[in-house]
Amino acid sequence: MTRQNPDIEYKVEPLGTSHDRVAFSSGVAALDAYIQRQARQDLERNLAAVFVLTSDGKTIAGFYTLSAHSIQATDLPEELAKRLPRFPLLVTLLGRMAISQSLQGRHLGVFLLIDALARAWRGSQQVASWAVVVDAKAGARDFYLKHDFAPLPSQPDRLFLPMKTIEKLFAS
Ligand SMILES: CC(C)(COP(=O)(O)OP(=O)(O)OC[C@H]1O[C@@H](n2cnc3c(N)ncnc32)[C@H](O)[C@@H]1OP(=O)(O)O)[C@@H](O)C(=O)NCCC(=O)NCCS
User: Fold this and answer.
1) Is the CB of 108 under 6 A from ligand 1?
2) How many other C-beta atoms are found inside a 10 Å radius of the C-beta of residue 164?
């Protein structure tokens, strides 16, 4: 996907060696430390797939990570849980997501979220995934609630969006 902003065209691509990780700053120290020091290792060890938002192939305007994960049906609201099996449900974890502080509030976050959901949905067509799950940090919980995620009753900062709902956004 690409996004015009309106004169800057952003694209999302896998984190590579050309991206300037050190310069990235979202204002959340843990997320900045992650992209600066941990993300490449996670990528190399197959612990997370890391994608960056960039307009020039170098500057990181934002990033997100996706990994395979699992949750228990019993962690879900009862109405959903009673229709699901009792073994762990495979899900896609949107582990970390951030937009550069200087670019926040310009709808790049929602653009990046839609890209992550689309990517998770495409992946789920090859390896099934019941939902996208996110651990909301540092005041971002309302951002995900606004975009249709719902909290797990047992862990209110862990939010989920069923792949069935995501599918409706992208399936033609
Ligand atoms: C949270 C974050 C990713 C949002 O990205 P952004 O580019 O600033 O947000 P957008 O401009 O795309 O916002 C889209 C909509 O969500 C709303 N929104 C954005 N951040 C929000 C927040 N923290 N809480 C509630 N709503 C929020 C916006 O008001 C906007 O609403 P609108 O469509 O009615 O205009 C970004 O602010 C960020 O990286 N924050 C610091 C790091 C962080 O907390 N990451 C999340 C870790 S789980």
Assistant:
1) yes
2) 9
Q: Which neighbouring-strand residues pair with 131?
A: 162
Q: How many CB atoms lie within 10 A of CB 113?
A: 22
Please tell me what DSSP assigns to residue 20.
B
Nearest ligand 1 atom, CA 111: 12
**Cβ-proximal residues to 45 (8 Å cutoff; 6+ apart), any chain:** none
CATH of 2-170, picked from 3.40.630.30, 3.40.50.360, 2.60.40.10, 3.40.50.150, is 3.40.630.30
Domain ranges of the chain: 2-170
Q: Rounded to two decimals, what is the model's pTM?
A: 0.95
Ligand 1 centroid, distance to 103 Cα (angstroms)? 11
pLDDT tens by residue, 19-45: 999 999 999 999 999 999 999 999 999
User: Going by C-beta distance under 8 Å and a sequence separation of 6 or more, which residues neighbour residue 138?
Assistant: 28, 30, 31
Q: Is 110 in the pocket of ligand 1 (CB under 6 A)?
A: yes
